[in-house]
Amino acid sequence: MKTRIFCILVLGLFCLSFLSACAPQAPTLAIESTWGKPSPSVAGAGAFFMVIKNSSGVADKLVSAQSSACGMTELHTTVKKADGTMMMQLVTDGIDVPANGQVELKSGSFHIMCMKMAADQLGAGAKPSLTLKFEKSGEKIVTIDMRAQ
Description:
Layout: H1 2-22, E1 29-38, E2 46-54, E3 60-66, E4 72-80, E5 86-90, E6 95-97, E7 101-105, E8 111-115, E9 129-134, E10 138-143, E11 145-146
Parallel strand pairs: 1-11
Antiparallel strand pairs: 1-2, 2-7, 2-8, 3-6, 3-9, 4-5, 4-8, 9-10
């Protein structure tokens, strides 16, 4: 009787471990080199930059961001127009973070725009917090190091 119960318990544990190994794994993200700067062309606005590293085999996507220092935040990218000038474009479908890879949010590329920014958060040395929302990884809170132009 004891042997039978023991075998059932061992079989149950084996099944649980097998099922947990088959469950989809959440991406493992690291947010590095976070910084921001005031926008030279838009008063009361700033741009946030960073490197998002994914050390897992599961891709993810940055879908939004928010900060109490901003009245509004948007994901943007910079694109070249037909006349050769550059312009910012709203990113509505998120920013992909590839499996076992990284994406860099940088000037002239993907970035997070902070509009209606609190005046005391625009200057060099300010450190507003920013909540990043990912499709699979959920929310991650980072601190932005504001720099001078």
